[in-house]
Amino acid sequence: MKLLISTIALLLAPVYLNAQTDCEKILDQKINLHEDDFETIQQELVTNFSKLIDCGLDKVDMVFFGQPPVLAALVIGWMNDDPEKVTYQRLLDEILKMKATPEYTESVKFYNDFQLLRSKKIDLENWDIDSKLLLKLMKDERLVNAIYHVIEQNPNQYDTYGAMIDDFNKMADSMIDVKEPVEELPDFFKDAELINYNEMLENAKVSGKPLLIFFTACADVNSRKMEDAFLYDNDIQKLIASDFYTVTLFVDSKKEVPKEYITTNPKTGKVMKTYGSFYIKIQEEQFKNQNQPFFVIVGNKGKVLKTHGFTLNKKEFQKFLK
């Protein structure tokens, strides 16, 4: 049931559009990434982003990118950059680059299919059609069968799939509130809590395997999509465990490093005291990249062999690992 809940608990927030905007003013505005309250950061992002409808984005962009988790994932890697350069103009430029990729079309289609599913009335007489849409979104026949059994055993409990999803979200929240023990995750999905890149290379060298680094973030929607699509699959996990020394780094980790490691980022002048701040610095300095998810394979001599970003194509990712 936990897997079912985690798969369908996609939080989609409405975006309120502003009819008239001073584009020059809003695009020059700096994005606040240093507020202690993460929810405040997200709300400010959503409010200001909604004004960009007049500045080069359309309504589809506003709805898709305007989801708080998506916006947060886009800017989280900029936390240690020069604050003068972290503006809404930079956010707009990043979105326009993403719009030009094939993944954008695929992601928008996923979003639209999910919205269609939310509005559909639950009726097992239509299960042949509904199950195909569910399978298309979840890519796991076991989860679809689990949903069928929930509906079959409680035929009048939910009117729409949206109501069902919302109920599962509430169940998930209550499970978190009572601190129910979570299922053990494969090592690949655990934060390595290593802040020294050379130490990672040395550990990999001792293991006799190449180093595989997974840069991700708790707030990154695309990382969760990849995990749900195939990263948990046994064949992928076995391949990773047998062929690589793995390091997973959550770039938005708020956990503080031991006091003796706290330092100042020479580039930004910002104090680095969380693991996330060190991970972002490693990704930017070593691999010139700020996106998540981002996978890097490094050889024992420190040479970058391969890199890979977001994909929902399992065969493509298997090819990257081989």
UniProtKB/TrEMBL annotation:
Superkingdom of the source species: Bacteria
Coiled-coil stretches noted in the UniProt entry, renumbered to this chain: none
Signal peptide (from-to): 1-19
Keywords associated with the record: Signal
InterPro entries: Thioredoxin-like_sf
Protein name: Thioredoxin-like
